[in-house]
Amino acid sequence: MSDAVLQKPLHATPLHALHLELGAKMVAFAGYDMPVSYPAGILAEHRHCRASAALFDVSHMGQLRLTGPDAARAMESLVPMDVIDLAPGRQRYAFFTNSSGGLLDDLMITRRGPEHGGDLFVVVNAGCKDADTKMMAANIGHRCGVQPLPDRALLALQGPKAATALSQLNDAVLALTFMTGASVTLAGADCFVTRSGYTGEDGFEISVHAEHAVALAKALLELPEVKPAGLGARDTLRLEAGLCLYGHDINETTTPVEAGLTWAIQKVRRAGGGRAGGYPGAATIDRQLASGAATKRVGLVGLERVPVREGAPIVDAKGQKLGVVTSGTLSPSYGEPVAMAYLAVNHALPHHEVYAEVRGKRQPMRVSPMPFVPHRYHRG
Amino acid sequence: MTTMYTDDHEWINIEDHEAATVGITHHAQDALGDVVFVDLPAIGSTFKKGDVAGVVESVKAAADLFMPVTGEVVEVNEALRADPSLANTDPLGNGWFFKVHVTNMGEFDQLMDGPAYDLLVKNS
User: Fold this and answer.
1) What's the distance, CA A99 to chain centroid?
2) Do A197 and A48 share a structural domain?
3) d(C-alpha A74, C-alpha A66), whole Å
4) Considering only CA atoms, which of A117, A90, A108 is closest in space to residue A181?
5) Spatial contact of A186 and A193, defined as CB atoms under 8 Å apart
6) How many domains does chain A have?
C-alpha cells in the first residue's frame, strides 16, 4: 500500500479553515495540519512579532485541568517544582521527569481562582499530550481529577504591542504581569488568559472554547497591531529567546541540569528543602545539582553566514567531537546563525570557539550566553 | 526555446551556451520560503548533469542545487550570495545562481520546455 493510504488523517484545530482563508502554507506537525507560514513568510512574521504583535494558533497543544484538594501535592510527585505554594493567578514553568532524571515533557501550570474551583490549568506539548495525559491518569488519577480540555482552542498573541492590542478588547489584561493569569472576556467569549509565551516578548496565551475561537481570532487580526504568524516563525522566535523545544533540545535523555533548567526547580524541592525529592529521578537530579553534569546545553553563534542545524556535530580545532547541535537557524533578528548544542562542560565556556561540521566543512562558532535576543517580559 | 526546465524546479537559459544561466523557478522559491543562504559552486569546477552543485537554504531547511547539464561553472552570482532574498524576489532574473559552459548540447534537449514544466507544476 502507498504511504498516502496508510497515513492517518491529520487533526485540524478550530482555526483550520481560517488558516487556509489567509493563504497559509500548511504542514503536518504532531498529527495536526498546521500553518508553517502565511503569505508574508517566516522572516516577515518573525520581525512583526518583535516589532508589533503576532497571533499564533497553538490549539494543537494539550490543555488540561487538575481538580480536587490534593491536585498540587499530586503534581509534585511528577515534577520537581513547587506547585503547592503556587498562589491563585500565578503560573509556573515545569517539566515531567523520568526515573533517570530525564525529561518527559515541559509544560506550564497555572493555579486558577474560585471561578475555576481553584484548579490547576496545565498546558503540555502537542506531541506529548496523549502520553502525558495517560501518565498523569495512571500516576495521580486516584488522587485528583485529570480532565483533558479538548474542546478549547489556544491562541498566542506575542510582541511589544500585544498588550496595547489586546487591551482594545478588554483592558483588564493590562493588570496582568509576566506569568500571571486571569479569566477575561474577549470578543464576547469567556477566556482564560496568561501573560506568558514562547517568544521572549511580552505577550498572552488565550484559552477559549473552540466555538468562539474563529470570532476571537478574527477580532484580534482586525486590530492594527496584529498579523498572523505560523510555526516557522514560532521556532525562530523561541530559538532566539533561548527557549527549549521538547524532542529537540530536551528529551528523555537530558536532565534539567544538563539542559540548564535548574532555575525552574524551586529550593523547597531540592535536597535539604522542606519538600525535597518525591518525583522521578530526584536522586540523579539532586546529585547533579550538587556536583554538576558532564554536558551542558549552550548557545552558539556562527562566525560565518552558514546556517548550522540540528544534528550537526560540534568538534574542536583538531576535529575531536565535543557535542552535537540540537536546534539551529539563521537568526532573523541578527542575520547570524544561532544554535543550541550540548557540549562537554570544559568546552561550554562563554566565547569558547568550536566548529560545527556542515556538509563536510568546519564552520567556526562561538559559545554564547542565551537568550540571543534579550527577553522583554512585562514584570510590572 | 532558450529557457528549459528540470523536474528539480531549476531553469537554464541557453542563449549563450558558453555561459548558460541557471536558477530556481518561481515554484521552487515559493515552496522554499524565505531564502537565507546560498552555497554556490566554485568557478572552474566541473560537474556532470545531476551532480549537486550547491545548496539553497531557507529558514527551515537546506535543499540541494543540481547541475541541469554537464559543464564547467564560469560565473556565480555574487549579488545573490550577498542578498539571498533575490532568489525569492527575482528568481528568473537577478536571482540567478551560476553560469555554466555547456559541453554536451544533447543533454539540453532532454530538459522540459516552458509548457511541459507548467504542466508538471500544475500536477504536483
Assistant:
1) 23
2) yes
3) 9
4) A90
5) yes
6) 2
Same domain, A222 and A331: no
Calpha distance A330→B14 (Å, rounded): 34
HSE-up (13 A, CA, CB side) for residue A10: 17
Report the CATH number at residue A233.
3.30.1360.120
Of A43, A305, A359, the CB nearest to B59: A43
Residue B65's contacts (CB-CB under 8 Å, 6 or more residues apart) are B10, B24, B38, B39, B52, B53, B54, B55, B56, B97
Q: Domain check: are A227 and A336 in the same one?
A: no
Residue A90 lies in a domain: no
Concatenate the DSSP letters of all residues of B29-97 into one string. Answer: HHHH-SEEEEEPPPTT-EE-TT-EEEEEEESS-EEEEE-SSSEEEEEE-HHHHH-TTHHHH-TTTTT--
User: Does B122 contact chain A (CB < 8 Å)?
Assistant: no
Select from A37, A330, A359 the Cβ nearest to the Cβ of B36.
A330
Q: What is the CATH number of the domain that holds A322?
A: 2.40.30.110
State the smallest CA–CA distance between residue B33 and chain A in angstroms.
Answer: 6
Domain, as residue range, for A326: 294-368
How do the pLDDT tens digits run along chain A, 380 residues long?
Answer: 444 556 678 999 999 999 999 999 999 999 999 999 999 999 999 999 999 999 999 999 999 999 999 999 999 999 999 999 999 999 999 999 999 999 999 999 999 999 999 999 999 999 999 999 999 999 999 999 999 999 999 999 999 999 999 999 999 999 999 999 999 999 999 999 999 999 999 999 999 999 999 999 999 999 999 999 999 999 999 999 999 999 999 999 999 999 999 999 999 999 999 999 999 999 999 999 999 999 999 999 999 999 999 999 999 999 999 999 999 999 999 999 999 999 999 999 999 999 999 999 999 999 999 999 999 999 98
Model confidence at B46: pLDDT above 70:
yes
| Strands A53-57 vs A226-228: parallel, antiparallel or unpaired | parallel
Enumerate chain A positions whose Cβ falls within 8 A of a Cβ in B: 25, 36-37, 41-44, 232, 235-236, 305-307, 309, 329-330, 332, 359
Q: Which of A240, A255, A274 is the last residue of a domain?
A: A240
- For each of the domains in chain B, give its residue range(s) and CATH number, in order of start: 3-117 (2.40.50.100)
How many Cβ atoms from other residues are within 10 Å of residue B48's Cβ? 12
Does B37 contact chain A (CB < 8 Å)?
yes
Q: How far apart are CA A109 and CA A160, in angstroms?
A: 24
A237-250 CB burial, b ≥16 within 10 A, e <16: bbbbbbbbbbebbb
**For the whole model, what pTM was predicted?**
0.95
CA angle A297, A301, A306 (to 5 degrees): 120
Assigned domain for A100 exists: no
Residue A22 domain flag = yes
Do the chains contact at B57 and A307, CB–CB below 8 Å? Answer: yes
Question: Are both A234 and A300 inside the same structural domain?
Answer: no
